[in-house]
Amino acid sequence: MPPLPMPDDWQRALVVAAHPDDIEYGLAAAVAVWTAAGKEVHYLLATRGEAGMAGVPPAEAGPLREEEERRSAAVVGVTEVEFLDHRDGVLVAGPELRRDLAAAIRRHRPDMVVTGWFGPTWTPPGVSPAYVNSADHRALGQSVVDAVADAGNEWIFPDLPEPRWGGVQYIAVGEMTDPPHQVDVGAAVELAVASLSEHRRYLELLSDAPVEEQARQVVDMSTLTEDGVRRVGFRLYWG
């Protein structure tokens, strides 16, 4: 059965990721489609990615990656990017992270919360050996799902000053292998490539290949399906 289109009965989305560049590895193409259609999209980053650049001290890498993320977001029509400033590499799924995420959800008041795949591996079930997903991705994703409920509950984190928000209609989790829902991103491929290319210093450390070439390969890998359709896939949960 082919994936269904994403629902359209929402106006404001909050995209939550662990690190700068996580959103650009696929989700940004969908963001470009949404903002072009008049949707309001905000970004929330749990860390500044300060531990992600080999040979670059965290004190230098953090501000650099933050600025790259803000430029990257602007390419796809996102003007508000918030950083929670948790420590890169050691996110823990638990009350501390959930509290900060719940507070952010209350501040941004989204109709839909979006996050990336947070399963244990990047490889489809049954495939071995598998690529292990980042510990930060796994911790963040579970905490995002839990924080949506926390944001609407007045008793879980009663010290939060933000008024509770129970208006999240959908939680959308990125899924590449067998997504029940999809966004057609054929018209947004070039924007997605340009968005990822803004992570220039980061990508230059990963490969000697030109940044734009790396970005195009990533976007192709994350959006091009076997039947030639450009899509970003999601699995939806009720908020």
UniProtKB/TrEMBL annotation:
<dbReference type="InterPro" id="IPR003737">
    <property type="entry name" value="GlcNAc_PI_deacetylase-related"/>
</dbReference>
<dbReference type="GO" id="GO:0016137">
    <property type="term" value="P:glycoside metabolic process"/>
</dbReference>
<dbReference type="GO" id="GO:0016811">
    <property type="term" value="F:hydrolase activity, acting on carbon-nitrogen (but not peptide) bonds, in linear amides"/>
</dbReference>
<protein>
    <submittedName>
        <fullName>N-acetylglucosaminyl deacetylase, LmbE family</fullName>
    </submittedName>
</protein>
<dbReference type="Pfam" id="PF02585">
    <property type="entry name" value="PIG-L"/>
</dbReference>
<keyword id="KW-0862">Zinc</keyword>
<dbReference type="InterPro" id="IPR024078">
    <property type="entry name" value="LmbE-like_dom_sf"/>
</dbReference>
